[in-house]
Inverse folding.
């Protein structure tokens, strides 16, 4: 079936495209929401920014397909073959990828919030900067997987194979589950929680809205261009920290030590300062214009 025929049938209300051979098909930015591609061959297909939300792609062949920026939210990809597939910045939140083969797939900056990856094969996959908050990775193969800078809050990696995985600068919290005996700190991951010691580390450019770091030691930390909107930074030691260009709008810095802090071009709109005063950028601008 060629792309035009496929889209005509979809527009006419047809949703069953099981077992079709669509190898190398060009479907850039198409809307195929809730379509059924069970066991279809979509290998090397161009599906950049396609809308496949809630689509069924169980056991489909998506080897080396390009799904960069695609919307796969809530899709069923269980048992799918995604070897070498590009899923850069794709939205896979709440999708099912149980038992899927994602070996050497590129999931850089992908949204995987609440995604079911139980038993999935992610050998040598690229998950740099991906959002795995609340994701299920029980028994997944993460051998030699690059999880650098990934968000692992509430993720369940129990019984996963993390041998040789790169967790440098990945973030986790008290609700993250790692395999028994695995030391995330030794692997280079950072615990984001109240009262932690993170002095002098590099957290530049990270997305940390609403984070709770009350009482933490962040002295000398690099938080340039970080998003700390509405963060709880009460009683935090930020002495000598670099917060230039960071977003601190709505953050609470009551009682924090900001001695020697670099706040150049930081967004302090509505920020509660260490003395309890709320920073008013509008008032500051008016004063500067007088």
């Amino acid at each position: 079936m060629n792309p035009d025929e496929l889209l005509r049938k979809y527009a006419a209300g047809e949703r069953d495209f099981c077992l079709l051979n669509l190898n190398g098909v060009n479907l850039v930015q198409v809307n195929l929401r809730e379509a059924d591609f069970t066991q279809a061959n979509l290998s090397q297909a161009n599906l950049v920014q396609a809308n496949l939300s809630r689509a069924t792609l169980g056991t489909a062949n998506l080897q080396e397909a390009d799904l960069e920026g695609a919307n796969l939210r809530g899709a069923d990809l269980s048992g799918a073959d995604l070897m070498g597939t590009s899923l850069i910045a794709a939205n896979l939140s709440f999708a099912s990828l149980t038992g899927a083969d994602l070996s050497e797939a590129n999931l850089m900056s992908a949204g995987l919030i609440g995604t079911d990856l139980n038993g999935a094969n992610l050998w040598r996959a690229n998950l740099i900067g991906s959002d795995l908050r609340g994701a299920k990775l029980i028994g997944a193969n993460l051998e030699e997987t690059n999880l650098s800078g990934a968000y692992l809050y509430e993720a369940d990696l129990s019984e996963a194979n993390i041998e040789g995985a790169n967790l440098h600068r990945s973030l986790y919290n008290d609700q993250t589950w790692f395999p028994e005996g695995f030391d995330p700190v030794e692997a280079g991951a950072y615990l984001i929680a109240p009262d932690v010691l993170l002095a002098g580390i590099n957290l530049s450019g990270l997305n940390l809205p609403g984070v709770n770091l009350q009482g933490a030691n962040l002295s000398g930390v690099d938080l340039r261009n970080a998003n700390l909107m509405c963060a709880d930074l009460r009683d935090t030691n930020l002495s000598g920290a670099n917060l230039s260009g960071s977003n601190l709008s709505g953050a609470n810095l009551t009682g924090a030590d900001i001695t020697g802090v670099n706040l150049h071009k930081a967004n302090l709109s509505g920020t509660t300062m260490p003395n309890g005063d709320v920073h008013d950028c509008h008032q500051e601008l008016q004063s500067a214009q007088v």
